[in-house]
Write a structure and sequence with these properties.
alpha+beta; 6-stranded antiparallel β-barrel; 6-stranded antiparallel beta barrel; 7 helices; 22 strands; 20% helix
Length: 379
């Protein structure tokens, strides 16, 4: 009996709920609307927080120094006189000086054909200007462009800081054009210092800045700023399984940028020092159980030859005679070819450095030597 009463009660409740819903959905609109309805009044916000004011001021001061870079290639339609212009890349950059020089990543402009390509610089006011590539440094992932037409009234050189005194935890700001959305500001902190970033060709950039400020495709070449609005790095890469922001971004330190850009402005390229040696594959060093890099060949007329370094060769009995093994360059330990290239890049052409080597590998006369060497220019 109690069960029957409960069942009847639930059935009645369900009928009432169904009736009410039906009433609401079929009732005349006039019964539910209010013709006198007014917008909600706005609650006064009060003043912005001091850090918000600082961020806004920083963006307003720097925005005019940041540019959007697009590259394109001219291609002729097969069998037709029509020439199409196809976009080949995009990224960010910033104004270096009042002479119209723009700095960006090398990988932003590397696909540009000097004959058929075109590079366009777009400023914050949406004005666009063509530019040419003045010079680049693939091993540092940097390039300098030069605006070819007059844009003096739009050139606002960015303030240059230093990356020598950075600290993990300090605030940083990135401005760029991720996915083509121009003048985008993201914020974060320095997450790490002294990172090493491979950039291809066996090269890597040392002392790279790690940040959690959001960096996405299109941010490449844009500035990483400190809280004073000074550039402290050039945003260049991310680590992400999906190819978009995942909390780990990297920026080339401004002290490196300053040196490389100055070289390009002076010479149209970076004068790279050159040892003049070819090294054996790392697998051979592993099999021999040695540290350092084994010299397989010393180039004729090179700095290495003038310093007396020795190649690997086969003697008259067809036995292998190992050449010198480079252990250190100017106090930096050398474990592989990449180490050698990176250590070399820290020195200028004409500098005299010391090499620590092993000579007479595998013989009774094996010894370690310190040899002075004067670096020449790579050709």
């Amino acid at each position: 009996m109690a069960f029957l009463r409960l069942f009847l009660f639930c059935l009645l409740a369900a009928v009432l709920v169904a009736w009410f819903i039906s009433y609401l959905t079929t009732a005349p609109k006039g019964a539910l609307t209010n013709p006198d309805a007014q917008p909600r009044s706005v609650t006064p916000r009060g003043d912005l927080a001091e850090d918000e004011k600082g961020t806004i001021e920083l963006f307003e001061n720097v925005a005019d120094s940041v540019v959007y870079i697009t590259t394109s290639q001219r291609q002729q339609v097969f069998g037709s006189p029509v020439v199409d212009e196809i976009r080949s890349g995009e990224g960010s950059g910033f104004v270096w000086d009042t002479d119209g020089h723009i700095v960006t990543n090398y990988h932003v402009i590397k696909s540009v054909d000097h004959q058929q390509g075109r590079t366009l610089i777009t400023f914050a006011d949406a004005s666009s200007h063509e530019a040419v590539i003045l010079g680049s440094s693939p091993e540092n992932d940097l390039a300098v462009l030069k605006i070819t037409d007059r844009a003096a009234d739009r050139l606002r050189p960015i303030m240059v800081g230093t990356s020598d005194d950075l600290q993990v935890g300090q605030k940083v700001f990135a401005i760029g054009n991720p996915f083509g959305f121009d003048q985008t500001l993201t914020t974060g902190v320095i997450s790490g210092l002294g990172r090493s970033l491979p950039v291809g060709g066996g090269f890597r950039i040392d002392d790279v800045i790690q940040t959690d400020a959001a960096i996405n495709p299109g941010n490449s070449g844009g500035p990483l700023l400190d809280s004073s609005g000074r550039i402290i790095g050039v945003n260049t890469a991310i680590i992400s399984p999906s190819g978009v922001y995942a909390g780990i971004g990297f920026a080339i330190p401004i002290d490196t940028v300053n040196t490389v850009v100055t070289e390009i402005l002076r010479h149209g390229k970076v004068l790279r020092p050159y040892l003049g040696v070819a090294v054996a594959p790392p697998t051979l060093s592993q099999r021999l159980g040695i540290r350092g890099v084994l010299i397989s060949q010393v180039m004729e007329g090179s700095a290495a030859e003038k310093a007396g370094l020795r190649s690997t060769f086969y003697n008259e009995n067809n036995d292998i005679v190992f050449g010198d093994v480079i252990l250190e360059l100017a106090g930096t330990a050398i474990n592989n070819h990449s180490d050698l290239l990176t250590a070399l890049a820290k020195h200028e052409v004409g500098a005299t450095i010391s090499l620590k080597i092993t000579r007479g590998l595998g013989t009774e006369s094996q010894e370690e030597l310190e040899i002075p060497l004067t670096l020449t220019e790579a050709r």
